[in-house]
Amino acid sequence: MAAEKLRSKVGSAFKMHGLLLRAEANKYLTEALQSVNELELEDVIENIIDAVEKQPLSSNMIERATVEAAVQECSQSLDETMYGDTNLFLFEIYG
């Protein structure tokens, strides 16, 4: 997806939740999401928004550091899910 279209999609998704991304936060998130499959993009953005909303927010203006922490949290959750599935798969094969 083109960077400008992705940036607009990200900004719109946050606005629907009453959140505004600072320019540097939107730029970071747009770059981070460039490699995400378009079919999964909306779910990934929603997961990031959920992670942002779990953080203590002093306003609806979201800083880059907040977005970075949310992306990190989502990445760790994905890693744990994949790792857990691998263990379950190995258990089923060798268990």
Question: Could you characterize what this model shows?
Answer:
The chain has 95 residues and is mainly α. It is built from four helices and two strands, in the order H-E-H-H-E-H. The protein has helices at 3-16, 23-33, 38-54, 64-94, and strands at 20-21, 61-62. A two-stranded parallel sheet has the order 1-2. Helix 2 (23-33) runs parallel beside helix 4 (64-94) and helix 3 (38-54) crosses helix 4. The longest helix has 31 residues, at 64-94. The protein is globular and about 30 Å long. Mean pLDDT is 85; it is low at 81-95.
Can you tag this structure with a few keywords?
disordered C terminus; two-stranded parallel ribbon; 4 helices; mainly alpha; 95 residues
Chain-wise SSE layout:
Layout: H1 3-16, E1 20-21, H2 23-33, H3 38-54, E2 61-62, H4 64-94
Parallel strand pairs: 1-2
Helix pairs in contact: 1-2, 2-4, 3-4
**Over all CA atoms, what is the radius of gyration?**
15 Å
Report the average pLDDT across residues.
85
Strand content: under 5%
* Uncertain residue ranges: 81-95
Distance between the termini: 43 Å
Find the structural class using helix and strand composition.
Answer: mainly alpha
Number of helices: 4
Shape: globular
In sequence order, what are the helices and strands, one letter per element? HEHHEH
**Major sheet attributes:** 2 strands, parallel
- Into which percent range does the helicity of residues fall? over 70%
Strand neighbour order, sheet with most strands? 1-2
Extended strand count: 2
Pfam families: Dpoe2NT
Main location: nucleus
Function: Accessory component of the DNA polymerase epsilon complex. Participates in DNA repair and in chromosomal DNA replication.
Domain DNA polymerase epsilon subunit B N-terminal: 3-74
